[in-house]
Design goal:
mainly alpha; 1 helix
Length: 70
């Protein structure tokens, strides 16, 4: 495994959302959306059992996650 000793970006001003010094080409199936950034969205539920009985709480949690997204 390669160990890195420095970051690719030397200046904080070089960190630009959606830009990369060394972009990875998209796979063929993504060619129509080339250079589009897909942010990671956290859809993690709080610690809970997921059962038929708790499903209304599960749905409410997901609804809250989605509606509070920027």
């Amino acid at each position: 495994m390669h160990k890195f000793k420095t970051t690719a970006y030397q200046n904080l001003s070089d960190f630009i959302y959606g830009k990369s010094l060394h972009p990875i080409p998209p796979k063929k199936r993504h060619d129509n959306r080339r250079r589009t950034v897909y942010p990671e969205v956290n859809f993690t539920l709080p610690s809970m059992m997921i059962t038929k009985e708790t499903m209304p709480e599960v749905i409410a949690s997901y609804r809250e996650i989605i509606t509070e997204m920027p």
